[in-house]
Amino acid sequence: MSETPLPLLVGEIFVDVTITPPGEENKLRLGGIAHAARGFWAQGVSFAAAVVVPEYLEKSAEDYLSKFGCKKCITLGHVSGAPNVILIFDATEVDDQNYETLLREEKTITLSKEIDANELAEFTDALIFPGSYDLAAVCDRLPASLRLHIDAAYDVQSVGNLGKLRQKIETIFISTSSQLFKETGTLGIEALASSFAELKLNVLVLKENRGGCRLHTSLTGATEGIPAQLGATVNSVGVGDVFDATYLAHLGEGPVEAAWRAASASSAYAQTTEPDIFQTYVRRDAKLSFLQLKELGGTFLPWEQRRTLQIYLAAPDFTGSDRRAIERAVSALKYHNFHVHRPVTENGELPRDSDHITLAMTYRKDVDLLKACKLVFAVPTGRDPGTLVEIGLAIAHGIPVVVYDPDAECTNTMVVGGSNCYSRNLDTCLNATFDCLSQSIGKAQ
Question: I need a surface site. Which of 7, 240, 317, 320 has the fewest CB within 10 A?
Fold first, then answer.
């Protein structure tokens, strides 16, 4: 890795509490910029931190960061009225993660009145995670010469607010899950880059969850797509933060290689909550040359393209049925911007005593809809016979099939062996959906 100056990590310290199913121990760990700190540490990069933190957490956070390579920790401000504890109800992010910040309405932040300029004079680059604090006020306390790399995924209200900062913004990271993206960039990377044009960025990085990321270089107008390396998700919290830290750690090799390395490290972070195991994964991948890393490939599926790849829902989606698993699957697919067809809703739910002509007409409509789709996502709860027929039809027509069977009711050879993916785990099925549709785009191109 090229020699890089000591980066300054700026943002809040939280306590993340992941709520697990009954019988499992809840996971508690330092969050906020602690995730990015682990990212720097795994890359072997020392850093400094300028933090906003509750007083009760200040000393333990400083001690913790120092163990992960923090050479200097400066307190920018204190949180009061709230413990800065976040409850996380879906750590795998198959759907909205449902963060809940305790006492968030009571939370206030008081920034330090003065910071010794000499303490910060050595830094050239800052990785900033905006939060509940006044970003402009914090940046006023930082050297004007700093080059900023800002994660605008959350807590950034508008592009205009970023334009008021006195430092030069080199990089913006943004995620498809952020409100700012939904307001500015859902039409594509060019539209998103245009909305940030006033900032005169060097690079805009759009993180697209399981679909990889895109890197837009302002000087050339070129866009580079970087695939995701999907694996079993243990905990997706902080994955984007690790991406940012890894990107900055490798920026000396150029933004494209930095983004590839970042994608690899963030994938590793999602697969474990144990720092030592995460570091082992990163060190293993660091032995790969850039060319070898690229040859590994991955899954690449841009946000706006997903709407064109229609998915047929095969499921007993009937009134009066237990649709909890079905609704969860549909919610997950829609969260990731897929267009899901629900044939029972679109073509009608027939009474049990319907005549043969009506049944045949509805059957034909359903089959025509299925054949027009790029993938069949099946939820065969209750061993629904119609769903099993739809699975068979899709297999016969060469349409990829992903079977989400939460209660393992259909472990039949034909279902398991004939589908592209069969699992009780929705995370696994979602990864398979991305893989199958990513491959279909590759074949079409």
Answer: 320
The token duo for 178 is 């952020």
The architecture that CATH gives domain 8-302 is: 3-Layer(aba) Sandwich (3.40)
193 half-sphere exposure, CB direction, 13 A CA radius: 18
Residue 403 CB neighbour total at 10 angstroms: 25
Domain 307-444 in CATH 3.40.50.300? The answer is no
Q: Are 369 and 312 in contact (CB under 8 A)?
A: yes
pLDDT in tens, 5-32: 689 999 999 999 998 888 888 889 999 9
Q: Which of 12, 113, 103, 17 is nearest to 54 (CA)?
A: 12
pLDDT digits (tens, 9 = 90+) for 317-352: 999 899 999 999 999 999 999 999 999 999 988 888
Torsion of CA 253, 256, 262, 265, to 10 degrees: -80
Q: Where are the domains of the chain?
A: 8-302, 307-444
| pLDDT given for residue 97 in this prediction | 67
Question: Strand, helix or coil at 278?
Answer: helix
Q: Count of residues for the chain?
A: 445
